[in-house]
Amino acid sequence: MTAKRRLLTFLTCSVIAGVLLLVTVVFSLRDHTAASWLTGAASLLVWATGLVAVWPVITEIRTGDFRR
Question: What pTM was estimated for this model as a whole?
Fold first, then answer.
């Protein structure tokens, strides 16, 4: 997987996680505690998946080995 594709995967996962967080807020305002916890956990899992996908690129940038 190329660096560009990994970054796009991370951005997509971040957007999905953001939407899930908004849904979490809506559920928590309406006193749906279980749904709020589930959507909050789902958003963290989606964001973590994106972070795992982009981690090799971050490591290359930090060590100076990044090539386009």
Answer: 0.79
